[in-house]
């Protein structure tokens, strides 16, 4: 017996007798798959096996150490290279023997082009700054990214091409943006009131801890919010833990920046002033000439190379509402709209006892296939909501995209916030439109106003 399924169990309570050995054919298919040599039939066999583990709430035990009472355990994890599923060793269980194939990373099935220090082509195009990206409705929110195994530049490009499939007419979301947005969405920094009582930075780390607990993964170790660690050479622990699990030694930074140049590939971290060079590609939302400026949040992929050098392999920066609020915004006009919305929501709360909440969707929202700028909802059931669309630019293609978004949102009440046409009066107009809607749809308001109001929960 070399591999067996075992029901998931709390640490220290393994029961050897509950192990079910895999068949010889399953083991050889799995081994070939791990070595990157799987046939179509092997793939089908492995996917069935992983699905069985996943749905049956089981782990895979490896007999390489000879210790059946406390074997290395592997759990099903997500990995875009393998049609969604892969295996990861549980970090708090024994390691494989060093000559066990599962002690090293899974090999990708493609011809590896070699990946060295000079390979800075990481795929993914700089965002075109369209600001109106939509993704296919019903797409799972969680991208398959969190624990990347080592991949060649070619594989990354293929992955990038895959991510474009299903996106709306050529508009794409930068891969790092997707990663960053997913984390921010999960942590709730795109909501008001914020669902946590701490800072956005700590909320992100709390999220990391939660993910670690629910998936047996170690995001905590690979997600750093403090770039100072880099200056002080404190990245080693994270890198070492990555390598201990057969993962590429890389960490994710989320940090605020106050200045950057996409072309010259440098950024200034907030509060520091030192220039940080990006070794790979830097993409700034909207490019160097974008009117939406700082502060921005940067998501950077930082890796330790075989020669020990630590490099920022790729980075993406997106404007946020404020240094203290990691709410991604697409323009300065949106920043103003957020301030206006907060002010009217606070007034409604204090003076009218109408409690509202705001969401900035970062992915397609509510099965509409569109990503509206803001959604304001009542906090009380049935939570009627209103969509706010900020008109950020005058040009025809922007307006056309907006129109498409509005068509998709036709079932909802929409307030159009035309800041370009009326920069001085827009705030007042938005506030009174939201107040009118809130009072008309509130539990204390007239029942007529509530009729036909769509629940957004
Ligand atoms: Zn093993």
Notes on the structure:
The protein has 457 residues and is of the alpha+beta class. It folds into three domains: 3-103, no CATH class; 153-327, no CATH class; 331-450, Endonuclease, Chain A (3-Layer(aba) Sandwich), CATH 3.40.960. Helices cover 30% and strands 21% of the residues. The chain has helices at 24-34, 40-55, 153-164, 175-187, 200-215, 219-222, 228-231, 236-244, 332-352, 396-408, 426-441, 447-450, and strands at residues 3-7, 20-21, 58-62, 73-79, 84-89, 191-192, 223-224, 250-261, 266-269, 275-277, 281-284, 296-304, 310-322, 325-328, 356-359, 374-378, 385-390, 414-417. The structure holds zinc ion (ZN). The site of zinc ion (ZN) has 7 residues, from loops.
Heterogens: zinc ion
Rg over C-alpha atoms, rounded to the nearest angstrom = 24 Å
The rounded distance between the terminal residues' Cα atoms is 50 Å
How would a textbook summarize the main sheet? 8 strands, mixed
Helix content range: 25-40%
Mean pLDDT equals 75
Q: Strand share of the residues?
A: 15-25%
List the total number of helices.
12
* The number of domains: 3
Shape: globular
Q: What's the total count of β strands?
A: 18
The structure class reads alpha+beta
SSE order, as H and E?
A: EEHHEEEHHEHHEHHEEEEEEEHEEEHEHH
Low-confidence stretches: 110-153, 158-172, 213-218, 445-453
